[in-house]
Amino acid sequence: MSKQKIIVKKQKKGQDYGAAKTFISAAVILFLMLMLTGLLTYFIPGGEFDPETMIFTKSQTRGIPIVTWIGAPILVLFSDSGALVIAIIIFLLIIGGAIHVLKETGLIEGVILAIVKRFANNENLLLAMLIFVFMTLGAFVGVFEEVVPLVPLILILARRMGWDDVTGLGVSVLATGLGFAAAVTNPFTIGVAQQLAGLVIFSGALLRFFVFISVYGVLFFFLKGHIKRNRTERIDAKIQDTSHVPASAYKFFVSLMLLMVVVVGLTPFISFLRDITLPIIGLIFLIAGIGVGKIVNGSGKWVTKQFFQGAKEMSPAIILILLATGIKHVLIEGQILGTILYGISNQLQNKSPLFALFMTFLAVMGLNFFIGSGSAKAFILMPILMPLMDLLGIGRQLGILAFQFGDGFSNILYPTNAVLLIALGLSRISYVKWLKFILPLQVVLFVLAMFWLAIAYRFGYGL
Q: Using CA atoms, how far apart are residues 92 and 146, in angstroms rounded to an integer?
């Protein structure tokens, strides 16, 4: 066996070990959280809370059987949200398979090599551009889950630039998540919340634009400092030869990626697209993987083999998603969500306006641990928060700003967020390592959010 093959084999073993370690640590954390949620159903009385009349009706039972806790990751597939979970799983399998085919053809390496050569002597510009593009997708279009297919590409680009995998996630998933939090016209948080609150859609955008700029600056300097402290060897010289990839394969791939951008861009403006965006993206990547594979290799058998290998490598992320959604299932089955919301509404009444505003931000951030969807939280919380904002004289626009911050900034922190779990699996970074990286930034973002809420309150934002 040649020396090069031995090195590749050792690298593969190291990657497999890292992936297994990442999966086990995340699975253990989620399982413990699942058990803790089950225990809470015995200590927190269940019930239903009607926010319109502020009436809380207690349940006659308390606690759910332990078999429901343990079986929740499977039982969730047969619940009301089961169809969505299954759709996400199928989407991930398709994306995993398609990306693997594209990588094995050498096309992705070729695209990355071109970018590396273009920005070899100006990595700060590349860093600024990547952060801006991904943050813009989150802030203006409401993209978050849809960036998953791009994560492997950005990770390869980061390695070629001499950046570590954490930086790769930083300029992609992290940037998108923070853009989602510092939203200007995000239709899934701002749009839905303002519609439920009876406000003009996307009104008050000027202040949110300045919030976006401030978060962008914080993230850029945070990642720039991280790169300086954790630079790795730039390995563009070790990229495999991609001269065998025909130009037609690149044209085919780029055309489909442009189509995907158009679909994502139209989603906020065409209502029926919102429910089928992920399936469409999955279909586009499936066509890209099969098409490029056939153009480069020509063998349907080879394409099929590579596709199923990629889908197989995505399976650990699916287990983590089932564990995370299982936590929400136990929360709903135990009927303790209504109790929690009732407690929050009681705590917010008769408080000073600014304190109530800060408490709203914290309450939404806490609830985001269990319910990741911004739109779902808007439907649950707006009927509670908006009357309270009116009562306290804060104004509904400012209440939505607090909701926006609470919903978004913790998306890239909690291990119950499916997008974060998938990204960590793709990068082979453990959740513990990610937590160490993200906590200092979270502290800065927490202070920044409080600052903007106080400024907005001081100048009567939305009144």
A: 11
In angstroms, the CA 169 to CA 431 distance is: 12
Q: How many CB atoms lie within 10 A of CB 114?
A: 12
Mean pLDDT value of segment 146-151: 81
- The pTM of this model reads 0.75
Q: What angle do CA 140, 146, 152 make, to 5 degrees?
A: 120
Contacts 24+ apart (CB under 8 A), 293-300: 293/101, 293/102, 293/104, 293/105, 295/246, 295/248, 295/249, 295/252, 296/105, 296/106, 296/107, 296/244, 296/245, 296/246, 296/249, 297/105
Per the listing, tokens 């343990």 go with 70
Question: Which tokens is 103 given?
Answer: 């990588």
Q: Rounded to whole angstroms, how far apart are CA atoms 178 and 134?
A: 9
First-to-last C-alpha distance (Å) of the chain: 73
Q: How far is CA 456 from the centre of its chain?
A: 27
Helix (H) or strand (E) holding 58: strand 55-58
For residue 205, how many other CB atoms are within 10 A of its CB? 13
Those residues whose C-beta lies under 8 Å from the C-beta of residue 194, and which sit 6 or more positions away, are 200, 201, 202, 203, 400
Answer positive or negative: Cα dihedral of 424, 444, 184, 226.
negative
User: Is 54's pLDDT higher than 70?
Assistant: no
- How far is residue 238 from each of residues 6, 159, 163, measured CA to CA in Å? 15, 11, 15
Give the residue among 105, 201, 190 at the shortest CA–CA distance from 139: 190
Dist. CA 154–CA 270, nearest whole Å? 29
Segment 335-363, tens digit of pLDDT? 887 787 777 777 777 778 888 899 889 98
245 Rama sector, left if φ>0, alpha if ψ -120 to 50, beta otherwise: beta
For the chain, give every domain's residue range.
3-78+107-244+314-458
Q: Determine the Cα angle at 337 with ends 331 and 340, to 5°.
A: 130
DSSP string, 202-217: TTTHHHHHHHHHHHHH
| Closest by Cα among 445, 427, 302 to 26 | 427
Q: What is the Rg, in whole angstroms, of the alpha carbon atoms belonging to the chain?
A: 23
pLDDT one-digit tens code per residue, 241-267: 555 788 898 899 889 888 887 887 777
Which run of H or of E encompasses 239? none
